[in-house]
Every structure is written in structure tokens, then in C-alpha cells.
Write a structure and sequence with these properties.
Layout: E1 4-10, H1 16-23, E2 27-34, H2 38-49, H3 55-58, H4 62-69, H5 84-87, H6 92-104, E3 125-128
Parallel strand pairs: 1-2, 1-3
Helix pairs in contact: 2-6, 4-6
């Protein structure tokens, strides 16, 4: 099939839905993801985008990253929200990977705060997967 399908993955994890569609030889353009587990979405970014961090993010210091990330509901267990005090213990390098994973995958992060106004109008396929 030559058509390209616009995809949004809810509860995207490491991107098994996108990979399954690619394995079916569908051309997909991932418009967005929604995953709050930092381990999963960092892996998603490395698998589907690149493990490289964009220059702009690689130059951010810890306080800048924390200022940005404090507004996200993140999890380090996939089961419950992570306290901001825990996020502050992460190294600047890890914080860069977290923020990079959000930006490069257009990760909405928290399904509870997502509404239709924030999503693209041209979605062809919307997937979801629960743990």
C-alpha cells in the first residue's frame, strides 16, 4: 500500500502498535503518542526516532529542564504519578532524555489532561494498549 496513514498511539509504551502496523507494510506517520512512563517513552524515542538528543535540549541545564518537566504528570513505575521531588534527583542527562522523548514523539504524556483540541484533525488510526 502506498497510502500513508496518520497515527496516534495512546498508552504507547515502546511503540508496539506502530511496529505492528509497519510489519503489515503500512506506511505510517506518527502524529502523536501518549505515555507517562518515562522508561517506556525514552525507549520509544530511541526505537522509533533516534537515541540522539537535539542540540537545543542537550544545552539545557537542570533547572531549565525541571522547570519544563514540573508541568507534566510523569511516572517512573507506570502505575502511579511520580513526585516532583523524585524528578529532582535525576541527573541532567536523564532529564534531557525525558524531555527529548516528549518532544520528538509529540508525547501528550497524561491521558487525563488530553482533549480533542490538542490533537491533530487528520488522524487516520488511533491505537491504544493497556498494560
Amino acid at each position: 500500500m502506498n497510502q500513508t496513514y496518520n497515527l496516534v498511539e495512546f498508552f504507547s509504551g515502546i511503540g508496539s502498535q506502530a511496529r505492528a502496523l509497519e510489519n503489515l507494510n503500512l506506511n505510517i506517520n506518527t502524529l502523536g503518542t501518549c505515555e507517562w512512563d518515562i522508561h517506556a517513552f525514552i525507549a520509544y524515542d530511541a526505537i522509533h526516532n533516534s537515541p540522539d538528543i537535539d542540540k537545543e535540549i542537550s544545552e539545557m541545564d537542570k533547572s531549565t529542564l525541571l522547570s519544563i518537566l514540573k508541568d507534566y504528570t510523569l511516572s517512573n513505575s507506570g502505575k502511579e504519578a511520580m513526585e516532583y521531588n523524585i524528578l529532582k534527583t535525576y541527573s541532567v542527562e536523564v532529564l534531557r532524555y525525558i524531555y527529548s522523548g516528549i518532544v520528538k514523539s509529540n508525547n501528550y504524556v497524561d491521558i487525563n489532561s488530553l482533549n480533542g483540541e490538542r490533537m491533530a484533525d487528520n488522524i487516520d488510526i488511533l491505537t491504544y494498549s493497556f498494560p
